[in-house]
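Protocol step 4 of 5: obtain the predicted structure for the target chain.
Materials: sequence only (see below). No template structures provided, no constraints applied. The aim of this step is simply to have a reference model before the mutagenesis design in step 5. Sequence pasted as it appears in the construct record:
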Amino acid sequence: MLRQQCMRIRGTDFVMYQVSDLARAANFYGQILGLPQEVYSEEWNWAEYNCGNVTLALKAGAKLPEAIVGGRIALAVEDIHAAHEEMKKHGVRVVSEPHDYSVCWAMEILDPDGNVVILHKRADGTFGP
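Step 4 output (structure tokens):
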């Protein structure tokens, strides 16, 4: 039986991570990962970063759970091995080293609150949708 559709999803506006310290997270995403910051509001405990085809939002101000579970964001990089070296240089927690999945290379790192960020490179060099 087909259900009558009341709404239509048009796309994704943003992906959000909860963080314990907005300034510390902003340094990680803006300075270490180099994402362009579009919004930063201590009043709203909110920051936004332009990831090219989606916005990453950070929300502070709430007590975080003991363990972070949930979604991940995959950020496309030009050179996965250079990204790996850069993360090590900055003391970023690397969860998984770069791995060749034949269609792509990927590695996982943790932000200061334990949110997983995937650094990703498609074999054909494309990114996004």
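Step 4 remarks: Residues 82 and 123 are 16 Å apart (CA to CA). The longest helix spans residues 22-32.
Proceed to step 5.
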